Amino acid sequence: MTFRYANVLSLLVAVLASTHFLSSNRQYVKHFLNEFKVISLSPESIITRLDGHHHHHGKKASKVDICDDFPHDSLPPDTNTTTTFCVDRNGCCNFTTVQSAIDAVATLNAKRTLIWINNGIYYEKVIIPKTKPNITFQGQGYTSTAIVWNDTANSSHGTFYSASVQVFSTNFVAKNISFMNVAPIPKPGDVGAQAVAIRVGGDQASFWGCGFFGAQDTLHDDRGRHYFKDCYIQGSIDFIFGNAKSLYEDCQLISMAPPLAVGQKSINGVVTAHGRASADEDSGFAFVRCAIGGTGRIWLGRAWRPFSRVVFAYTFMSDIVAPEGWNDFNDPSRDQSIFYGEYMCMGGGANTSTRVPYAQKLNDTQASLFLNASFINADQWLQSQL
Ligand SMILES: *[C@@H]1O[C@H](CO)[C@@H](O)[C@H](O)[C@H]1NC(C)=O
Ligand SMILES: *[C@@H]1O[C@H](CO)[C@@H](O)[C@H](O)[C@H]1NC(C)=O
Ligand SMILES: *[C@@H]1O[C@H](CO)[C@@H](O)[C@H](O)[C@H]1NC(C)=O
Ligand SMILES: *[C@@H]1O[C@H](CO)[C@@H](O)[C@H](O)[C@H]1NC(C)=O
Ligand SMILES: *[C@@H]1O[C@H](CO)[C@@H](O)[C@H](O)[C@H]1NC(C)=O
Ligand SMILES: *[C@@H]1O[C@H](CO)[C@@H](O)[C@H](O)[C@H]1NC(C)=O
Ligand SMILES: *[C@@H]1O[C@H](CO)[C@@H](O)[C@H](O)[C@H]1NC(C)=O
Ligand SMILES: *[C@@H]1O[C@H](CO)[C@@H](O)[C@H](O)[C@H]1NC(C)=O
Ligand SMILES: *[C@@H]1O[C@H](CO)[C@@H](O)[C@H](O)[C@H]1NC(C)=O
Predict the structure, then answer these.
(1) Per-residue pLDDT averaged across 255-274, rounded?
(2) Which ligand 3 atom sits closest to the C-alpha of 81?
């Protein structure tokens, strides 16, 4: 999202200016992937691998050598309801890029197309147009399969177009894969450095065991009804933003805002910026059994638009969550229309006794609307995506 409010911008700039916040996100991602012992198939590593074969066998390695380990048996067969396309960056199956597989999907296909994506980092910007519904991305694990790009608001005509992956179609499903934006982490005072990892702009989308990596504006949960289960979501400012109606269950929400000195009261991160503009809009973010951790000192949400609606239930909040909890975008006229609720949360950051006055401790009746998949009318669509 763009900063439309100079007062908030200057607040955050002042906050960020007090820290040294210069490491590159690309390094962070490499560190993250190494930590999980991911075999990163960078061009260099493929060359090294080829060289290795060269030394061992005393002959030039061929594509066949790289593909020896290819797990052909893992590929689900075509059925009368699903077609499988395979992507492998070493060229061991149908496609070497995710976008080339999407391009090959028939327009307005009523069947589901399962795009099976082998281990590796796919450096590409991916777009799924509105005309290609029913696509599933099946990765091999969110720490081993990732789609990565590095556009920013500046490099792409605005935050909304900066996403590494943009989904405009309905019925999109992703399983065990990561979406990353590795543009440089915004430095204090930077303008136009927002960098989205994925924009989810179609109705009826679900994400299972996925990773979302970025800094400012990581996950653009744009519009439609969406479901996130067992996902890992990392960012700094407004790292889940948009105007969708979404249920997040059992997800980790990790702030990578810089650590602050003990006792420092400034805020340098925000989990959500929900963009509901009027009472007529049926949108909101519900987080159930999630965990909030990481670094910095953060708010749970701030009111990007006046009717912003966010609920946290049964969620663990570490003490990086500031006692006031929420922010009205420095516009008190929004306090009447904001809906920010908490229900049965726990942890050092979940103490509601000094929350902003418009934050609500929900009772059972109020909370029940947000606690299960009925919130997103899942009975109409989610089961078939499991
Ligand atoms: C799809 O295949 C299953 C089993 O192979 C069969 O029971 C079903 O009738 C088929 N559906 C259609 C629409 O052909
Ligand atoms: C993908 O590869 C499989 C196995 O070689 C083949 O049967 C299938 O037709 C290919 N699909 C496409 C879309 O190229
Ligand atoms: C494919 O998408 C269309 C339009 O969104 C939907 O009506 C249909 O049920 C979908 N089919 C499957 C198999 O998901
Ligand atoms: C993205 O990375 C490429 C390659 O490192 C670089 O040339 C380009 O400037 C980067 N783009 C942005 C917006 O940082
Ligand atoms: C995702 O990965 C986990 C852990 O490897 C595995 O247990 C699970 O079956 C996978 N799920 C899907 C839908 O790929
Ligand atoms: C974005 O573009 C503006 C205008 O050209 C420039 O002033 C600013 O430094 C750029 N931001 C980044 C992060 O490169
Ligand atoms: C919550 O915070 C208040 C005010 O700081 C404090 O008095 C109270 O003991 C805290 N409650 C818990 C359960 O920590
Ligand atoms: C829950 O809160 C709502 C709104 O304040 C109120 O109308 C309702 O009576 C409460 N229900 C219970 C069971 O306390
Ligand atoms: C979800 O919760 C509502 C309210 O408690 C309840 O009426 C509904 O049956 C539940 N739906 C599911 C799918 O569990």
Answers:
(1) 94
(2) 13
Mean pLDDT (the chain) is 87
Residue type, 153: A
Strand residues in 36-132 grouped as ranges (E): 82-87, 112-117, 120-123, 126-128
Q: Which amino acid is at 2?
A: T
Q: Assign a CATH topology to domain 6-37+82-380.
A: Pectate Lyase C-like (2.160.20)
> What predicted TM-score, i.e. pTM, was given to this entire model?
0.88
Q: Name the closest ligand to CA 354.
A: 7
Ligand 7 atom with minimal separation from the 354 CA: 4
Smallest CA separation from ligand 2 atom 13, residue: 85
- Ligand 7 contacts (CB < 6 A) are 351, 353-354
Residue 47 has pLDDT above 50, yes or no: no
Catalytic residue from among 217, 221, 222, 328:
217
Q: If you search the block for the tokens 């982490």, which residue do you land on? A: 185
CA distance 86 to 117: 6
Backbone angles phi, psi at 361, to 5 degrees: -90, 110
pLDDT at residue 184, as a whole number: 94
Q: 41 C-alpha to center of ligand 4: Å?
A: 19
Using the structure block, give the residue that is written with the tokens 């749970």: 300
Going from the C-alpha of 301 to that of each of 53, 91, 94, 232, 329, the distances in angstroms are: 52, 43, 43, 18, 9
Residues at CB less than 6 angstroms from ligand 2:
85-86, 93-94, 104
User: Residue 263: pLDDT above 90?
Assistant: no
Mutation choice for ligand 2 from 86, 93, 111, CB with most ligand atoms inside 8 A: 86
CATH 2.160.20.10 maps onto the chain at 6-37+82-380
pLDDT in tens, 275-304: 999 999 999 999 999 999 999 999 999 999
pLDDT in tens, 5-31: 222 222 222 223 222 222 344 444 444
Query: Tens of pLDDT along 97-113?
Result: 999 999 999 999 999 99
Please list the alpha-helical segments (H only) found in the chain. 6-17, 25-35, 43-57, 63-67, 98-104, 364-368
217 carries an active-site annotation:
yes
- The tens digit of pLDDT for each residue in 350-377 reads 999 999 999 999 999 999 999 999 999 9
With a 6 A CB cut-off, is 360 part of the ligand 8 pocket?
no
